[in-house]
Amino acid sequence: MPPRPLALSDSEIAAVMAAARPLAPRQRESFLRHVAQVLSAMPVRGDGVVHRAIASVWREHFDPPLDVSSAD
Predict the structure, then answer these.
(1) 16/4 Cα distance (integer angstroms)
(2) 3-state secondary structure of 44
(3) Any residues with CB less than 8 A from the CB of 51 and at least 6 apart, and which?
(4) Do 60 and 34 form a contact (C-beta atoms < 8 A)?
(5) CB atoms within 10 A of CB 31
(6) CA angle at residue 35 from 28 to 31, to 5 degrees?
(7) Among candidate residues 42, 18, 38, 39, the one with its CA nearest the CA of residue 28
(8) Each residue's pLDDT tens digit, 6-22
(9) Tens digit of pLDDT for each residue in 30-62?
(10) Domain that holds residue 58
(11) Of 28, 31, 50, which is closest to residue 39 (Cα–Cα)?
């Protein structure tokens, strides 16, 4: 059975997409799926819940760039 579509408001979608933007392109899809998974388990949604969901999974998908300036 395919997953049920997740209904989000325009501001909630904008927040999720803004959080995905700084991620490497290869990490965005898994981030979006992970956020959707967390949100689908929430009985109530709103901007605060969406932001908490984003914060709870963002670091798992962010791969910080190497600091080459300290290699001296």
Answers:
(1) 18
(2) coil
(3) 15
(4) yes
(5) 20
(6) 20
(7) 18
(8) 889 999 999 999 999 99
(9) 999 999 999 999 888 888 999 999 999 988 888
(10) 24-62
(11) 50
Residue 18 domain flag: no
User: Does any domain span residue 58?
Assistant: yes
Q: Contact at 8 Å (CB) between 2 and 35?
A: no
Query: Element (H or E) spanning 8, and its range?
Result: none
Q: How far is CA 36 from CA 5, 9, 48, in A?
A: 9, 13, 15
- Report residue 23 as tokens: 């991620």
- pTM score, whole prediction: 0.79
- Count up the domains in the chain and report the number: 1
Which residue has 């979608």 as its token pair? 13
Cα Rg, the chain, nearest whole Å: 14
